[in-house]
Amino acid sequence: MAEIATGKMHKSIDLKYQPGFSQIAWFCIVVLYAPIAVLVLFSFNQNRSVTVWTEFSFDWYLKAAQNEGIQHAAWVSLEVAFIAMVVSTILATMAALVTTRTSPYRGLNVAVTVINQPLMVPEVVTAVATLIFFAIIKQATGVSGIGYLIAAHTAFCIPFAYMPIRARLEDMDLSLEQAAADLYAPPFKVFRRVTLPLMLPGIMAGAMLAFIVSLDDVIITLFVAGPGETTLPLYILGQIRRGVTPEINAVSTVFLLISVVLVTLIFFFGTDKNKREQ
Amino acid sequence: MKQKLLTTITAMCLTFAMGSVQAAGELHIYNWGNYTNPDLIKKFEAKHGVKVTIDSYDSNETMLAKVEQGGSGYDVVVPGDYMIAIMIKKGLLEKVQPNKMSNFKNIDPKWIDVYWDEGRNYTIPYQWGTTNFTVDKTVYNGDINTLALLFDPPAELKGRINMLKDMNDVINAGLRYLGYPRCNSNKAQLKELNTMLVKAKANWRTMDYSVIEKLTSKDVDLSQSWNGAAKRARKDRPELVYAYPKEGFTGWMDNVAVLKGAPNLENAKLFMNFMMTPEAAALTSNFANYANGIMGSESMMNADLTAAPEIVMPASAPAPEFVPPCAQEVTDLYSKIWTNLNK
Fold it and tell me: Using a CB-CB distance cutoff of 8 angstroms, which residues of chain A are in contact with residue B21?
């Protein structure tokens, strides 16, 4: 793609030089980010309105930090996201290995489709299905707890973790692993010393993607979460009927910051090494 | 290493799961967001040695969806009046008989024989309020206690009105203005209502839930509103006055209820009895800014609350009307009018 754009195509056909390109691009960026900018701006507003500006203050951040409900919800969010990230990344790594590091077998395409299918199913369908499924298990076993929420998050995080790991593996030439095997390295050693280090950037990117997806999830969490398991997005949602205060803007801004940092890290993990190799 | 990690994680998950099975002396409350006073909970925890968790929902329907499947793990919920009626019918609530509890004497008698729980065998009042509208007196200084301001507004208010984006609130107000009964399936009357609403809509600026923002940003000068929101808007715009139209208006009440199969039934009963004390009711009102229906709580309520005309109704106002859920046939007709109105 890059080659086509810069090399073979004539300058005048290049999209970047079409009239109106930068205007349209700026328009799109403003449409996408203006609401978020407003949200961030009003998190620093001194009065309780989320529309009328008075003066700059950090009051709402202090208030949010002292709010026990928010603290508890933040802790639940991080706990669930962390465990879901670790488990789903391990599973996704295994899945990525068996769908790329073997000679093609019957059912390979089906396996890949099945792994990615959750991305296509509307979230509310998964949510209701999970709710009913867990309700049956809970009634049959009498066991309750945050384990259900973690299991649900792990499940929907797998395809997100799987994608970058698989993309990384597909980019990696088999020749290094074959060379290691030629030199009598046993399969596990090949994996430890050659495959794993090479695929690590993909695993990191997958893990962080899984973390963010879990941290941001609303619908499935809304249906699955049990007592004491309110996550931050659920807490924010619960405020809506009683009126949103800039406290929520402050919390959202912090969340936004975490997401931006992680997305930036994913970007660096995903691209850095590729470039160096080339 | 991976093996070890996996074992650790499995163990962790199990610990979480086990933790909540074994624990005794707990109470799990599922309430509207930002509606439970943390001080109230601390007081209850200290008094009875019970550990309380609070989770929140954003609508009666979300709560119902989750509770209906069973095994939600919650003990206490706080649904609105019509939702209580539905939940009792579906057999989702435990008949805990608050009317036999020691603090039941504190409930204002007018809140005992209510349509959703006649005689209070299942529930007690939590907070209640009204749905009316609030007007800027400097913009319009005539008589505000009439629904004509919404449906046939004077020149000053034309194009300066926000209505709630709520089918029942708009349609019921319309029916009262025309003098027709609620839960109405009379086609001729509904036709008239439809024509009237479409005509009135030309004078409305917006139909939106964000009442406080609309009013305080001076986007509109009149807004249909819940009384609590009207009070909060008045804080930023003191010219606002809450109307009690002579044609009548809707009341709502959220109620404390105990779920059937509650894991901590005895603690839930303790909580219910506790919530009928004037101290607890006052704490809730001071936090949520609505009236509570428990006698003797006024003296402990914040002064700005007891002095607020939005919360304490003037004696001249008609009694609020609680509208039960209408038959499906009626709801379908209403939906048609509503869809047409929102086109």
Answer: 142-145
Give the integer Cα–Cα distance in Å for A126 and A156: 9
Whether B16 and chain A come into contact, CB under 8 Å, resolves to yes
How many structural domains comprise chain A?
A: 1
Q: Test A151 with B62 for CB contact under 8 angstroms.
A: no
> Are B58 and A241 inside 8 Å of each other by CB?
yes
Whether residue B137 is contained in a domain is answered as: yes
Both tokens of residue A162? 């799987």
Tens-digit pLDDT profile for residues B19-51: 444 345 999 999 998 899 999 999 999 999 999
Write out the residue range of the structural domain in which residue B55 sits: 24-128+253-306
On chain B, the residues whose CB falls within 8 A of the CB of A229 are 55
- Statement: the pTM of the whole predicted model exceeds 0.80: no
Start-to-end Cα distance in chain A: 16
Residues of A in contact with B267 (CB under 8 A): none
Beta-carbon separation of B229 and A243 below 8 A: yes
Pick the closest to residue A202 from A142, A267, A115, A269 (CA basis): A269
Q: How far apart are CA B140 and CA B138, in angstroms?
A: 6
DSSP 8-class letter at A8: I
Domain contains B15: no
Give CA angle at B128 (B123, B129), nearest 5°: 155
Domain that holds residue A80: 73-277
B326 and B227 both lie in a single domain: yes
Instruction: Look over chain A and give the mean of its residue pLDDT values, rounded to a whole number.
Output: 86
pLDDT in tens, A32-84: 999 889 889 888 988 776 667 878 888 889 988 888 888 899 899 999 999 99
Overall domain count for chain B: 2
Mutate to test the interface with A, among B13, B76, B83 (most CBs of A within 10 A): B13
Q: Are residues B205 and B336 in the same domain?
A: yes
| CB-based contact B21 A237, cutoff 8 Å | no
CATH number for position A210: 1.10.3720.10
Share of chain A above pLDDT 90, in %: 38
Q: Over 50: is that where the pLDDT of A97 sits? A: yes
A153: closest CA of chain B, how far (Å): 13
Share of chain A above pLDDT 70, in %: 90
Residue A25 lies in a domain: no
Number of H helices, E strands in chain A: 13, 0
Asked if A71 has any chain B CB less than 8 Å from its own CB, the reply is no
Q: Do B137 and B257 belong to one domain? A: no
pLDDT at B22: 38
User: Of B307, B255, B262, nearest to B276 (Cα)?
Assistant: B255
Q: Smallest Cβ distance to B216: which of A52, A86, A234? A: A52
The verdict on B122 and B212 lying in the same domain is: no
In a domain, B8, yes or no: no
